[in-house]
Structure formats: C-alpha cells, structure tokens
Fold these 2 entries.
Entry 1:
Amino acid sequence: MNHTDSHTDFWAPVVFIIFFVLTILIGSSIQQIRTLLGSRVATNNSLEEWGLGGRHFGPWITWFLIGGDFYTAYTVIALPALVYAKGAFGFFAMPYTIIVYPFIFFVMPKLWQIARDNGYSTAADIVRARFDSRTLEIIVAITGIAAVIPYMALQLVGIRDVVETLGLPAVTSLIIAFLALAAYTWLGGLHAPALTAFIKDVMIYITVLVAVTLIPLHIHGGYSTLLANPSGSDTVLKAGQALPFATLALSSALAGFLYPHTLTGVLASRSADTIRQNAVFLPIYTILLGLISMLGFMAHAVGINTDTAHHGLIVPLLFLKVFPSWFAGFCLASIAVGALIPAAVMAIGAANLVTKNILPPQKDQKTMVRTSRVAAFLTKLGALLCILFLTTKFALNFQLLGCVVILQTFPAVIMGLMRLRLSTEAILTGWVVGSAVGVGLTLADGLKPFHFLHFGFVSGNVSTALFSMVLNCIVVLLVSWVRPGTLPHHMTHPHLKGETTKFPLAEPYM
C-alpha cells in the first residue's frame, strides 16, 4: 500500500469514519427516528417488527432491502478480486443474476403468499407446514444458519480489508468490523438495514459511476486498451473454464433466494405484487455488477499489485491511488456500508430461524426479541471464527461454501411446492447424502468451489454445490418413488389456487 503523502493518510480515514459511523448511528437510532417522524408502526419490542419489519415494506424499501442484501461485499470486494486474479471467469455472477430474477418473479410471490396467510417467518416454517415434520423443520433451520455464517464472514472480510487499507492492523480491523455489525444489528432490527440501504445504494452508485468514468481516463486508450490487454487478466474464458463458469452461475442462482437473509427481505414485503415489481427492475443491479467487476481489470491497468493472499485489497488500493484522498475515503466507506447492511440482514435471518424454529415457542414478545438479538450476535461470532479458522485464497469462497450448504434445502423448500408426492424420509435422506458429499468434497478440495468429474465423453470441473444438489434431488425422487408422500394441500384441493393458496397448519409442537 502506497500513500503519496500525509495529506492522503489524514483525509481518507476522516471521511471514511464520518460516513461509516453516521450510517451505524442512523441504523441504531432508527426507532427514535421513526417515533420523531410520527410513525404509527409498532416498536421493535415485537419479533414481527424486529425480524420482519412488520411485513409492511412497499416497493421502494423492498427494492433497496433486497438489492442491499443481495449485492454485498461479495460484489464490491470479492468479484473484482476474482477478476483481477482469474480474468473473465470472475464475471460468472452476471448470468447468475439474470437467471435468478425469473425465479424471483414466479416462485417468491407464491412463497410470500403462503407465509403471509399463515404467519410464517422463515423457510423452515413453510417446510414444517408442508411436511408436518418437526425434525425436518429443525434441519432446514440449522442448514440455513450454517450456510449464512460463511456468507456473513465474507462481509466481515470486506470491512476488514477496507479498514486495513487505511492503516490499521488486520486483527484490529476485524474486531472493528465485528463490533460495528453487532451494535448495528442489536439496536435497529430489520428496520435499520431496510431504511439505511438507501444510503448504501446511493454511495455505491456514486462510487461506481465515478470510478468507471474517471479511472479509464488514467489509462492510455481508455476502455479499448483496458479490454484489449488488461495487463495479465484474460478478457475471455480460457479452455476448460466454460463448464465451471456455467455450473457455478447456475448453482449460485438456485441458491440465491434460499438463504435466510434474502428470503427475509422477500417475506418483509407488503404484497406479492411488490415482489414481482422488484423482480422486473432488479436487473438494473446486474448492470452495476458488471461495472464493479471491471474494477479488477482497472486495478491491473493502473499498476496495483498485491500478493496472492491479499487480492481483497485491490479495490481499496485502486481508489486510494487514483482518487483524491477525501473521495477515496468516501468510496471506502461505501464498500464498508455495503458489507454492513447485508451482514445485518443475514444475522437477523439466522436469528429468526433460531427463535422460531429451533427453540421452543415463547409467548412473551420481549423475550423472543431478546433471544433473537442474542442469536444474531452468536451467528456473527460464528462468522468471526469462520474467518479465523478457515483459510481460503479468495474471500468469495466463503460465500460459495454457504452455497453448497444452502442448496441442500432446495428439495424441501422449492420442490415441496411442486406436484410431487415427496415424503419426509426422502427429503431427510437426500439432505444427508447431499450435505455429506458437498461439504466433504469442498473440504477435501481446500474450500475450492469445484470438483473434477468425468461423465462419459464430458469431463471437467463442476460446481460442487450444483453436483451435490442434483445428487440430493435424485435421492429424494428415488426414495419418494419407493415410499411416496402426500401432495401439497393446494395441489389436492384445486379451489385453493391463486392468492388463497395455503398449506395446512401443522399442530403446535411440544
């Protein structure tokens, strides 16, 4: 890291601290702000408010919330780092987002309707109602928590990288990231990231638009030179990269809205139409995603160099090199805020699973909120331990590890909506096989997201997440063929189609 003078060292941290701390204060004080503005909405003393924002977010807030927890440090730190190191392969996230939007449009409104009609807050609630299995409910809940912890670790890595670039030691930076996230989530609940996501999006848009406009001016020949010869990064896929590129994009798309945090954003929406409207306009974020990924090429072109263990620093170093110190501080703050907000939603989504699906039910709302806050804190602690004990060259692999885990809930959550006689035994067997194979291969391959497979005349690296999910689905279908289960309630009663679709309510568990 090279700072040109002490002026740079002073103004970048000052501007960063102003914007980062201001966002945390606004989020942490969101209840007082709502009271001051005369909000008639219930307080965060109820779990429905703290964990789902009262389910009354309209199109605008839902837009920023879903976009905010979908486009994270994964986007601003991890993807440019992958493009910097691997070239065009890092653009796999663009087809992934294009695939996921039709999925949101057609599937998520149905899940929202089922959840709204019956008061469900999590995917595990829906699975319990569909299969009437307490065991399956707990497994889906635990799987969601296990999947979101490494994804949350990626957000902490993003904040740590930014703070470290400003001159603080790595351990201190990580502690700052952890404490900031803990305070922000504990006090604000889902209202904090929902309402401050607007701040995050504005800051990110300003950062990216300025970067993709001004940085090419520092390069002789601009974009033509950048794309023709980006100093070591390939602008097209290499031989053998097409199969892993395609399978990684597909597995990421299928996993995208199974995560607790993304589903939380959907279930907090006011209506099914709100979700459809957002699915239509969310592709705007894909354009932003492509522009952000280009920062990896730009870092090469302007001469940013890091060792192989610190590729995550390339975007912060790029901003510090090409921008005035004060604006570099603003850009770094946008990255940190862009990690803070989705990490908060992830912690809240995981806490909802603990409170609603793992622990015995409690009638006292204040106790449930307090339990959720403690659960959210413990998941953040798990993310911290994930960083300390899991070593990976690319921070992106933390998210891809979560993808392997969360895709094992695909048969229960998504296939459970289909006209299939799936049995509880089949879902459980498929989950055991898929989880064992997926996690086992990932650990054996050193947290790399691919595994080499040979299928007849085709061989190559395949997404471990997709392979393990397909194996899971095959097992589910085979076991269900031998021991068929029941159809979903709305499949056996045609008059319950459309907006009145409901699953039968499961009996209260002990």
Entry 2:
Amino acid sequence: MDERFLLLAVLLPLLGGALLPLTHKGGPKVVYGTMYAITAATSFLTWALIITGNTASYTLVKLTKELTLTLRFDGLGRFFAGIVATLWPLTVLYASEYMKHEPRQTAFFCFFTMTYGVTLGVAMSANLFTMYAFYELLTLATVPLVMHPMTRRAVRAAKTYFSFSLGGAALAFTSIMFLIGNGYGESFRFGGFLEGGFEGSRNLMLAFYVMGFLGFGVKAALFPAHVWLPKASVAPTPVTALLHAVAVVKSGVFAVIRLTFFAYGTGALAGSWAQNAVMALSIFTIFFGATKAVKEQHWKRRLAYSTVANLSYILFGVSMMTQAGLTAGLLHMAFHAETKILAFFCAGAVLHSTGREYLSQLNGLGKKMPITFGCFAVSALALTGIPPFSGFVSKWHLLTAAADTQNGLAYLGAGVLLFGALLTAMYMFTVVCRAFFPCAGSEDEKLPAEREVSWRMTVPMTILAAGILLTGLFAQPIVNAALAIARGIG
C-alpha cells in the first residue's frame, strides 16, 4: 500500500473527531453514526496496512536533518496498532450506550475519536522526535476525557494526571535529546544506536536512559508516579477502560520498549546498574500494585491498582533485556489489554445499570446480571493466569524468561510474579464470589428481576470474553509475531 495511507490512518480520526461537533445538530444518531463510520474506517485501514506489511516511511515535516516528523510501520508498531485497532471499535460501541444519558456527549466523542488517531501516531512513529510529539499530544487529547464529568474529583484527577504527565515528559525529553544531541536522531533501529559503544561517559549515558525509562514510565504507572492512575478512575468507564488497558498506559510501555531495544540498545545497557535499577523498580511496582488492589474496596480503583501491577509485569519483561523477556512483555501487553478492558467494561456495566461501585454492594448481583459477571469471571481467570486463558500464556513466558536470565534479581521478580498471581486471584475472585455466592442473608432482594445492560454493552463484553479464551487456546500466531519482533525480524 502507498505510504500516504499511514498519514490517512492517523488523520482520519484526528480530523474526523475535530469535525464531529458539526454533526451535533443532527442529533445523537448522526453523531454516533459518524463516529462509528470513522472508527470502522480507521480500523479497517490500519489492519490493511498491518496485513500488507508495508515498511515504507512518510515524512510529514522536516525541521532539521535530525528532527523530522516521519511515519513508518515496523513489526513493533504493527503489533501495538493491531491491539488498538481491534479494541477501539468495541469500546466505541460500548461507549455509545454508556454515554447516551451523559451531558456534553459530542465533546466527549470528539476527544475520544481524536485520541484514536494520536495513539496510532505513537504506534507509527519512525523516530524518537515523532514518537515524543505524538506522546505529548496523547496527554492533551485525554485530559479533557478524564475531567469530562466536571465534578471536583474529576477536575482534581485531571490536574494530577496532567501534572505527572508533564514531569514524565520533561524526563523523557531530556533522555531523547541526549541521543539526538549526540547524532542519533535517525529512524529506530533494532539493537539501538549505541550497540557499537558510546564514546562519552558510560555512567552518564546510563543515567539518561534511566531518566527516559522513568519519564515514559509515568504513563505506564511506574511507582511512585502511579498516583494518577487510580484517581483517573473517576472518568467515565469507556475512558478508564482505554486509559488503563489500551491507549495511554500501553503507549507508555511501548515508548519504554522503543527506548530500550530500538534507541539505546540492550548491548549498551545489559548487565549495568541501570538495568538493575529499572528491574528492581518494576518488581517493586508489581508487589505494590497487587497489594493495594487487595485492600481497595472501590471496584474501579481496585482494577486501577491491578493495572499498576500488570503494567510492571511488562516492564519487568523489558528490563530483562533479552529476546525471551521482550517476547513475554509483548505477549502480556496484548493479553492484558483484552483482559483489563473487559474487566472495566463489566464494572462500568454494573455502575451504568445499578449505580453500584463498591464491592460491598455487589452481593448476589450475579443472578441479576449473569452475562456481565460471567464475562468478569473470564477476565478474572485470565488475569490470574489460569489455563487455557490468554493470561496464562504471557505469565508463563515471563516466568521462563526470568529463569533463563541467570540473574538473581530476575529470579526475585519471578517469585514476586507468582505471589502477585495469588493476590490477583484474591482481588478478582472476591468480586466473582460476592456476585454469585453471597454470604447467607447478604443478598440484596430489592434489586429488580432483570438488570442486565443492553446489547451495545453485552456484545463487546461477550466478544472480548470469547477472544480471551481463543487467544489462549490458539496463542501461537501471536507468540510467533512477538518472537519475530524480539529477534529483530518482525
């Protein structure tokens, strides 16, 4: 396909979202129809680009020799874009039902659609400068979504998110400018720019890498910058589902992978104090996020702390700086996305139907909303890592990758991962048990006989639940794709 289709895939949702308010006078049906059309066309075009495997680049702006805004699809970009293009249409269908009684719907879907284009821009970035530009646009596009309810809590959450993102942006900018300033501003290269060695101070170079890891790690909710993520759960569920599963947090993880394997390079980083520092922080975040999730009684915030832990599973795989570690990290990036977005959809369905958001309010609700809680049970099985669901595949690869490193810190990480799986079972299955097997006398009999949400919400949830099972049973094509990227041939 012509490389200009890369630009079209990014511009279609960006411009379409920006012009969406023009359809407001036509009523909700016109707004929704336009949004469906833009999303479907963008996903179709993105998957066409993925399948054809076009690796040509398209330069939008050339500021200097080192600073160009250029789009290019390589294996890693196609992998991330495939996740986004698959899950976004399901979220749009879900959101059209969830938001139908909310105020300022057109403004919401305007930013929601634009975020799709910006996220694809991150995936298609050919170099550090382009990735950073789209990465910062992602913050600007998603802040209005977090504060959409316009309550005091929502505004505070948006300010926290924006403040942390600015701090992370400063660290990330310093790291990438170190590379660009040393003449490494060209397109991403598997193995990195410093594979042949660095002429200056190695410790200085490692310090700049850690700054970049921490900076991009803000959106990946790395401790102590995780604070914004649980607070952002005040946003409408379609937003939190995308923030915590696809767009923002996975863009953070994606940027860390680019920085580690395609910019600095593992040849310059492996075995250093910098590797140990980022691995140790990732391991601690796994432990911290999982323990906080067990204690949290607010359902969406519990899932948010779970996301904190699971994002660092991916960062742990990346910090091993091996083929097997990157493969495992990519698998968890994909499988966690489908699992966590389903979990948030289920929590949002209950909130939408009943207004209930705390665990103590879920007793016996599984009998009233069997599809919703049946799907949540699937997400719980997958997130815990129970076969044959997809979460088992990625966690198994993380464990075997850690065992192969012969690194004591990685062994510790494997132990924390196993402990995290136990905690995951506790905080996920507590919800399932409350819903389907409440304690005697605790079931709320005042609930109406039928409380299940409409098909616009149950269909995406059912598709995701089936997808979690199918990608677990037939994981090999996805494993092969991740392995090809980790070998530099994807």
